[in-house]
Write a structure and sequence with these properties.
The structure holds two protein chains of two kinds. Chain A is built from 14 helices and 13 strands. By secondary structure, chain A is of the alpha/beta class. In chain A, helix 5 runs parallel beside helix 11. Chain B has 14 helices and twelve strands. Chain B folds into two domains: 258 residues, 3-Layer(aba) Sandwich (Aspartate Aminotransferase, domain 2), CATH 3.40.640; 131 residues, Aspartate Aminotransferase, domain 1 (Alpha-Beta Complex). By secondary structure, chain B is α/β, with parallel strands linked by helices. Chain B starts with 36 loop residues before the first helix and ends with a helix. Classes of the chains: A alpha/beta, B alpha/beta. Chains A and B meet through helix 1, helix 2, helix 3, helix 4 and helix 5 of A and helix 2, helix 3, helix 4, helix 5 and helix 6 of B.
């Protein structure tokens, strides 16, 4: 077998050194009843590289990939062009096949990269510090809610109705077991996000307000008044960013007073990948850092005085604090963080701003185009590269019918909120730099046909 | 047998005494120092050509960015060079043996990478209509079937994002099952002291109280003591098998039976599944839930700290409580995704959703590729070779290093040693750092906590006998130096990109993000 270097001669010599007659002697501690005497039945035997590749390629072809269709899906995962050098760098074996950097003298590559990533994310979010990544945006969001509980010693969180419903589901699942109380709601198809109603609901028992920016319908709300209202009641404002490219065009949540900013970094460097692996982003102010979950890399010096980097503040973490840790997270998403960091380095400030401007301009043009169609109404006043339209009929069948014709038209709100009739006609459409004029024509004519 | 049986060994020339000669750049030939992107790049430079945006009226809600972000950019050649230089300061499996115990650092086949990048897997959106992603759902389903059959379990949750997330999934299933039974007074989870830190952290996160299970002098769970502690307040146990001392829990079935008789559930930490895959099915030992680290046993790359993937296999008793979403294959081969939209009343006891989408698809494609490559026969050989390699190390070193459990029988996939017998003032860390100078990644140090100065060595099955022999030779040499009190070990490593780093300084004055020198000074 091509991945196993031992020869039968090696095995024989090694068994002799070990003092065993056969390898079975090494499994003597397994109770006899539980020993399998041969390969498990009805599972295939080993296969050549060519045969496996053929099988997997066949499965790959049974999907309509985004690059083969006019594509307008967003809602927490965005399709951007990823420069070729990003994939080249993350496939370097020294990054790809390294472990968590527990031996810093021989892991400076990962550690310096993580320090740079933390610095980039902190700047992008307008915060003092960021950690070295979480699993994804949804789990980062829940971790932020638990962090707010630790900081404020209150357990009542208010979640905006504009927060991604899957993020709400994750928080709800966890809160059932931890005893946190979550106030949640369903969005309405209105032009403005729910900021005012959030402000009205903050009281002395509120641990935090969680608000997505831009929100699930693409709307952008000013967070400053909300932050002030939170702080007046000593609650924290948690902002959730699912499309970091937006921050090349709009103000950073940290600059508007958010205490914790979390997000999904997938749209920079990582790709769609059917939902994972992605990269959770987590940033906060300096004074909260000791309550933060996840790994942190910090600067230090070595015995000769040279600058170097190490994992630090580990007394927050499970391998030191066990049941008293701030989180149970161990493995996070460092390789995806590398992909995001490389993409951000390639873009730089100028590139990110230009990219954001292009996304916004394309979205504005498409919104105007669609708003003029009979049976289509754009609900947003504000948006970045994603907006919501209200169709004259239920959106789910429209999306399915268009997919059958090879157009991936967007995410129907019925997919996200299956029981909400008031949202059934809603369709969220994302437009990135990858969308061409031909894609736009295909979407427009497809919608016209489906709504006729 | 090698063709040139004499092998090759480098010979050291006479030193000319110039080894410490400083260079103008600080570089040492191929060892290149690399500044931060913030010191190299500029906010006006970009390595991406972006077409000019058409002029439109901004609709950003009046929130147009009015302050610089401060993100440095580099041209493409400089970017590639920056990260290539950084990469060369990392040790990696691709460079050599990486014997971190309980981490299973095995070779990562490159076919896995090629497959994961096929457009039908890499370039599909998680919310596409299910008709357009039948192949992707097929991968999830096919991998799920393999994992269920390899473990002999009843059901599976594919969505957990890593090992600790899988632990949480299993523990939440236990909690949901107890709630359904109306036995919410069961608030204690019993966890051995030798467990990974994630076990108690997970139990606490899910609202359980953690109590310690005592161990026998042979490094295994003390069954009598466990039986004595079971009762109406105990929700279950979390046990690692093979355990973190590298030993198989001989009494596992009896432990499971005792826990079940007392009304509790058995969680198994599957981090060490590599030792038994294809030879033992945990389902035959009475396990109720076990996570599988695809980034350990099934060869998906660890990436310097993730992404991982932690599917959880479940017993018939716990399967009804598993999370959404999951796949369902119909008789005609069509696969549906059971999520909020489609769940209806078919899975009413599910505890809910653990993550936004369907789990680590990019890891599923890699793991399935690996599994199909090995097949049922190859996976069995994986377990056998990993166990043989570990025993070979154990028996080749037990005369120079203290091996606390060596007399009780063979080890599984990892060999454990203690720091007993080293010279006064010498400990595991000195051996570990000296191994760095020998060109090896050190073993896991000071874990598990039950062995003093633990050195936990897991070679995995992808190492050749030649590599093991070289490692054994190096570790013998270092151990003898540590026993003789060789002071040079105390300042090792000498030849790594950095000498020992000041971790105390890093924690006392945390510098976690780069600041412009002027700002950094102002903050002093």
């Amino acid at each position: 077998m091509r991945y196993l270097p031992l020869t039968d001669a090696d095995r024989g010599e090694m068994l002799a050194r070990v003092g065993a007659k056969s390898v079975d002697d090494l499994f003597v501690d397994v109770p006899e009843a539980a020993r399998l005497d041969g390969p498990i039945h009805d599972l295939p035997l080993h296969a050549s590289e060519m045969a496996v590749e053929r099988h997997m390629a066949k499965l790959s072809r049974q999907n309509l990939s985004a690059g083969d269709a006019p594509f307008f899906l967003g809602c927490g995962a965005y399709r951007h062009h990823v420069p070729a050098s990003v994939d080249h760098i993350i496939q370097r074996g020294e990054f790809l096949t390294a472990y968590t950097p527990y031996q810093p003298e021989i892991a400076q590559g990962t550690l310096q990269m993580t320090y740079e990533f933390q610095s980039q994310v902190a700047r992008l979010f307008g915060c003092d510090v960021a950690n070295g990544s979480m699993y994804d945006g949804s789990t980062a969001c829940w971790e932020a809610i638990t962090m707010a509980r630790r900081v404020t010693r209150r357990a009542r969180a208010i979640l905006s109705s504009g927060l991604h419903p899957h993020y709400v589901s994750v928080a709800r699942t966890m809160a059932k077991f931890t005893g946190d109380i979550l106030e949640t709601g369903m969005p309405t198809l209105e032009a403005a996000p729910d900021t005012d109603s959030l402000i009205d609901r903050i009281d002395d028992e509120t641990s935090c307000v969680v608000v997505q920016y831009p929100d699930i319908l693409g709307r952008i709300g000013d967070l400053s008044a909300l932050a002030d209202a939170c702080h007046a009641k000593k609650a924290l404002l948690i902002a959730v960013v699912t499309e970091p490219v937006a921050l090349g065009a709009i103000k950073a949540p940290g600059d508007m007073g958010a205490d914790i900013v979390v997000g999904e970094g997938q749209s920079l460097g990582v790709g769609l990948q059917f939902g994972g692996p992605y990269v959770g982003l987590f940033a906060c102010s300096e004074k909260l850092v000791r309550q933060m979950p996840g790994r942190l890399t910090g600067e230090t010096v070595d015995a000769e005085g040279k600058r170097g980097f190490v994992l630090t503040l580990s007394t927050r973490e499970q391998h030191i604090r066990r049941e008293k840790a701030t989180s149970n997270i161990c493995t996070s998403s460092v390789l995806c963080a590398l992909a995001m960091s490389v993409h951000m380095t390639l873009l730089g400030e100028k590139g990110l701003r230009d990219l954001a401007a292009l996304n916004h301009a394309k979205a504005c043009r498409l919104a105007d185009r669609l708003d003029a169609l009979p049976g289509v109404e754009v609900i947003n006043d504000s948006f970045f590269n994603e907006f919501t339209v209200k169709l004259s009929k239920e959106a789910r069948p429209v999306v399915r019918a268009m997919a059958e014709k090879g157009v991936l038209a967007g995410v129907s709100l019925g997919r996200l909120w299956p029981d909400a009739e008031a949202l059934a006609n809603g369709l969220v459409i994302a437009v990135t730099e990858t969308v061409t004029d031909e894609d736009v024509e295909a979407l427009v004519s497809g919608l016209e046909e489906a709504l006729a | 047998m090698s063709i040139n049986q004499g092998g090759w060994r480098p010979t050291m020339g006479e030193s000319d005494g110039n080894g410490d000669m400083p260079t103008y750049t600080g570089n040492r030939a191929l060892m290149l120092e690399e500044p931060l992107i913030f010191e190299r790049g500029s906010v006006n430079v970009t390595g991406v050509d972006i077409e000019e945006a058409p002029k439109v009226r901004s609709r950003l809600g009046g929130l147009d960015r009015n302050r610089d972000i401060g993100l440095p950019g580099l041209s493409e050649p400089e970017t590639v060079r920056h990260y290539t230089r950084l990469s060369r300061q990392n040790y990696a499996i691709d460079l050599g043996l990486f014997p971190l115990g309980s981490c299973t650092m095995k070779h990562n086949p490159r076919l896995n990478e090629r497959v994961a990048r096929m457009p039908g897997f890499a370039d599909v959106h998680p919310l596409q209509p299910v008709d357009t992603v039948q192949g992707a759902l097929g991968v999830i389903n096919e991998l799920a079937v393999w994992l269920i059959k390899l473990t002999g379990m009843y059901g599976i949750a594919m969505s957990p994002k890593a090992g600790a997330h899988g632990e949480l999934c299993g523990v939440l299933c236990i909690k949901a099952a107890l709630e359904k039974r109306g036995e919410t007074d069961r608030k204690v989870l019993l966890v051995p002291e030798s467990a990974h830190g994630t076990n108690p952290a997970t139990a606490a996160f899910a609202g359980f109280r953690v109590e310690n299970i005592p161990a026998t002098p042979e490094g295994r769970v003390d069954l009598a003591a466990l039986r004595g502690r079971l009762g109406p307040d105990v929700a279950g146990v979390m046990i690692t098998n093979p355990n973190t001392c590298g030993l198989f829990e001989r009494d596992m079935k009896a432990i499971s039976d005792a826990v079940h008789d007392a009304g509790g559930y058995v969680y198994c930490d599957g981090a060490n599944f590599n030792a038994i895959v294809g030879r033992v099915r945990p389902g035959d030992l009475g396990i109720d839930a076990m996570h599988i680290n695809l980034h350990k046993t099934f060869s998906t790359p660890h990436g310097g700290g993730g992404p991982g993937s932690g599917p959880v296999v479940l017993s018939e008793a716990l399967a009804p409580y598993g999370p959404l979403p999951f796949t369902e294959r119909h008789a005609d081969g069509y696969i549906t995704l059971v999520e909020e939209e489609t769940v209806g009343d078919r899975h009413p006891d599910s505890f809910g959703r653990m993550t936004a989408f369907h789990g680590q698809m990019g890891m599923f494609t890699r793991a399935l590729t690996y599994i199909l490559s090995h097949g049922a026969d190859g996976l069995r050989q994986v377990a056998e070779d990993s166990v043989l390699n570990a025993n070979y190390i154990l028996r080749s070193l037990e005369d120079v290093l203290d091996a606390p459990f060596a007399e009780t029988g063979p080890c599984m996939h990892e060999a454990i040693f203690s720091d007993a017998g080293l010279a006064e003032g010498f400990s595991t860390i000195d051996i570990a750092k000296a191994l760095i100078d020998e060109g090896f990644h050190p073993m896991t140090m000071y874990f598990p906590l039950v062995v003093h100065g633990a050195m936990l060595i897991e070679p995995t099955e992808t190492e050749s006998k030649g590599t093991l022999d070289q490692f054994i030779g190096a570790l013998r040499s270092v151990a003898q130096r540590a026993k003789a009190g060789d002071q040079a070990l105390k300042s090792a490593p000498h030849f790594a990109p950095r000498r020992r780093l000041d971790e105390t300084l890093a924690a006392r004055k945390p510098v976690l993000a780069w600041k412009e020198p002027s700002q950094a000074e102002a903050a002093e």
